[in-house]
Amino acid sequence: MIPLIPFLLLGHWLEPLIASHFSEGSADGNPWWASVVIVSGLTVDILLPIPSSVLLVFAGRSFGGLGGAAVGWLGLNLSAAVGFWLSRRFGQRIVDRFSSRADVDDFELLDARAGWWALIACRPLPILAEASVIFAGLSDMKAGRFWPPIIFANGIIALLYGMLGGYAAQQQWFVTAVVVAMVLPALFIVLWRWRQRVGQ
Description:
The protein is mainly α. About 80% of the residues lie in helices and about 0% in strands.
C-alpha cells in the first residue's frame, strides 16, 4: 500500500493532470509515433531525468503487455548502449556529471561482492541503474560480460511494467498505474538513501 498512499491523498488533482498527458486515444491513432516517443525517451533516460517506469507502463497501455514489453525492452537496451559507449569514450567526465561519488562507490562495493549480478540488481533502481552502466564502461568491462545480464534484466523489467500497463488499461485504471510507476521508483531512492545513512 505504501506506493499508493500519495495517490490516495493527492489523487483528486493528480489523476486529471496525468490523464491530460496520457489520454486514452493518444497512441491509438498513430502507434508508430507512440513507439518512437517511447523508445526515444527511454534511450535518452541515461542522460536526462525521464521517468522510464512511466514510459514502460505507457508502452504496455499502447501496445498490450507483450507488445509494450518489446518496445520497452528495445528502449532500455538502447539506453544501456548509449551509457556504456559514452562512459568508455568520455570516462571520468561522465561520472562527474551524471553520478555522485557515493553512487559509484556503492556500485563498486556491490560489484566486488556480486560481480555481474550487480548489473541485474541495479537495473530496477533509479540512479543506480544509470550509475551501474556508467561504471561498467568506465571500468572497461568486456561487452560479453556486460550485455547478458543487462539484456536479461531489461527484459524482466520491460515485461513487468508492460504487463502492468496492459492490464491497467483493460481494467480502466491506467492513471492509477502511472501514479504507482512514478511513486515506486521514488520509494526505492528513499530506501536506498536511508540504508546509506544507517550504514554510516
